[in-house]
Amino acid sequence: MPRRFNHMELTLPQGGLEAARSEIKAFYTDLFGWDALDVSILKQTGLLLRTDAETSQFILVTEQRAHMASPGFDHLGVLCETR
């Protein structure tokens, strides 16, 4: 059985998503061919990055006062068919 991720939720500092929205969209759509959708959630416009129309795998990016902090090597690994 192939292994897949279901979802990942990422929180950025307030103002961080709006500052980087276009670059995040370009990266995931150009490199992986994912869809990037603006979605209304938590009284803000979040960014939904999905692998397919069914949204069976996705990354949801929002802004929060208490946001995610990564000490350095944390990451999401994505396996692709080609380099």
Brief characterization of the structure:
The chain is of the alpha+beta class. Helices cover about 20% and strands about 30% of the residues.
Return the structural class: alpha+beta
Radius of gyration: 13 Å
Q: What letter string, H or E per element, gives the SSE order?
A: EHEEE
Mean pLDDT: 90
Strand order of the largest sheet: 1-4-3-2
**Overall body shape:** globular
End-to-end gap: 23 Å
Helix content: 10-25%
Beta strand count: 4
Strand content: 25-35%
Uncertain runs are none
How many distinct helices?
1
Topology summary:
Elements: E1 7-12, H1 16-32, E2 35-41, E3 44-50, E4 58-63
Parallel strand pairs: 1-4
Antiparallel strand pairs: 2-3, 3-4
Q: What does it look like?
A:
It is a single chain. This protein has 83 residues and is α+β, with helices and mostly antiparallel strands. Helices cover 20% and strands 31% of the residues. The protein is built from 1 helix and 4 strands. Strands 1-4-3-2 form a 4-stranded mixed beta sheet, covered by helices on one side. Strand 2 (35-41) and strand 3 (44-50) form a beta hairpin. The two termini are 23 Å apart.
Provide tags for this entry.
single chain; globular; alpha+beta
